[in-house]
Specification:
The protein is an all-alpha fold. The chain has a domain of about 100 residues: Alpha Horseshoe (Serine Threonine Protein Phosphatase 5, Tetratricopeptide repeat), CATH 1.25.40.10. About 80% of the residues lie in helices and about 0% in strands.
């Protein structure tokens, strides 16, 4: 009985020390950046040059890691927006237009404060739909771009995207 007491006492004293230390916000940010950079550098980027099964392996690994980032680091909104957009790009690469457009649209819904990522996601969705001859759906995204970003005080690059969107709307 005394042995059991000591085992329980040791467990109560020492087990809390065995728990992994929670990461701080700065550690989370560094881990999220490292995961994103590694995924882009080692998998997503090289997939553009690869062919056949190797290309699919790289795309699958990139998609898996972007998804992991989204689940593990939800507070890293800029990286999550980039990861969600990258997942859309992977689906677009595979010819999965509808799934890609859903993911691009989700960037604006989930990470609306990330202006640059929203702009790029909406433009990607619009262009993908346009090229797929779904012009009516594409125009909805072009209109959203003009409405949200069509201001005089935005950077030149954004004004250029807005001009392009207006031109598509006029077609």
């Amino acid at each position: 009985m005394a042995t059991m007491f000591w085992v329980l006492l040791c467990a109560v004293i020492f087990l809390p020390a065995c728990k992994p230390k929670p990461q701080t916000s700065a550690e989370d940010s560094a881990s999220a950046h490292a995961l994103f950079e590694q995924t882009t550098r080692e998998f997503h980027g090289p997939s553009t040059e690869a062919k056949g099964p190797e290309r699919e392996r790289l795309l699958n690994e990139a998609a898996s890691r972007y998804s992991k980032l989204l689940k593990t680091f939800p507070g890293e909104t800029n990286l999550c927006a980039q990861s969600l957009r990258a997942l859309g790009s992977i689906h677009a690469t595979r010819g999965q237009t509808n799934e890609a457009v859903k993911l691009y649209a989700a960037v604006g819904e989930k990470y609306g404060s990330q202006d640059w990522e929203v702009l790029q996601a909406w433009k990607s969705a619009a262009d993908l739909l346009w090229d797929s001859n779904q012009r009516g759906e594409a125009k909805k995204f072009y209109a959203k771009i003009v409405e949200r970003f069509g201001k005089n005080d935005v950077p030149q690059i954004i004004q250029q995207v807005v001009r392009g969107s207006k031109a598509r709307l006029a077609e």
